[in-house]
Design brief:
It contains no helices and 11 strands. It is mainly β.
Length: 124
């Protein structure tokens, strides 16, 4: 069974850091672009960051650029999201997703596989 499992969420203070991981099992996702999305209560699921299958190209939402870094280790079938300088408005459930496109789109509808999410809460 093809699965994406997020981990690393939790409660952190304003200005703190967290590192999210997304471990893939089942199929090999090394040829998939990967993305991170987040969804706050009552809001739509928003794009956060994406990375191409090779790891060469990355893309970030304006709200996180310069604070978050996406990376991947294809040998471990794992994608990471390093989050620094966290703010209360970053509070959301964070989802990992895989896309058969090469470049890592921003639209959630272009992703084929999704994890169940991990909660990130930033206290002020």
């Amino acid at each position: 069974q093809d699965q994406l499992v997020e981990s690393g969420g939790g409660l952190v203070q304003d200005g703190g850091s967290l590192r999210l991981s997304c471990a893939a099992s089942g199929r090999t996702f090394s040829r998939y672009a990967m993305g991170w999305f987040r969804q706050a209560p009552g809001k739509e699921r928003d794009f956060v960051a994406s990375i191409s299958w090779s790891g060469t190209n990355t893309h970030y939402a304006d709200s996180v650029r310069g604070r978050f870094t996406i990376s991947r280790d294809n040998a471990k079938n794992t994608v990471y999201l390093q989050m620094n300088s966290l703010k209360p408005e970053d509070t959301a459930v964070y989802y990992c997703a895989a896309s058969t496109t090469v470049w890592g789109p921003t639209l959630p509808t272009l992703y084929n596989y999704w994890g169940r999410g991990t909660q990130v809460t930033v206290s002020s």
